[in-house]
Amino acid sequence: MTNEICGSGGEWLADGAANAFKHMSWAALLGIRFDYKTAKGFLDRHEDYPGAQDDPARVMDTWNNMVGLDIGVDLWRQGYRDAFHPAAWDAVKWSVRYAIGNNWHDQLVPGPGTRPK
After folding, report:
1. Domain coordinates of the chain in residue numbers?
2. What is the pLDDT of residue 43?
3. Phi and psi of 3, rounded to 5°?
4. Where residue 99 falls among pLDDT bands split at 50, 70, 90?
5. What is the rounded distance in angstroms from the CA atom of residue 39 to the CA atom of residue 90?
6. pTM of the prediction?
7. Using N-to-C axis directions, what is the helix angle for 17-33 and 56-77, rounded to 10°?
8. Quick one: residue 103, left, alpha or beta (phi over 0 = left, psi -120 to 50 = alpha)?
């Protein structure tokens, strides 16, 4: 699915736009399907692995998860209730593409104490 939208070539393995798309989309769908606390719990546990505290990719993934979760919660407020419905998936794809197109996936300043720009 990511290759269909972002292209192939393994970019999805790196910390690029395709990886951001995967994180944001999954988080958005969880935000539609579950309440905020439950969805955030899934996402946080997914990013909790040995050595995670020292992994800069984790910070970026967590940021992308939060952008995606905000998208999902917003879509839920707009009336999307079934994360598996094609209209919900279309809304997620459009919203995530918008976020990536505006470089929201790249809004971190690298280094100690990494934070949104």
Report:
1. 20-116
2. 94
3. -60, -35
4. confident
5. 20
6. 0.76
7. 40
8. left
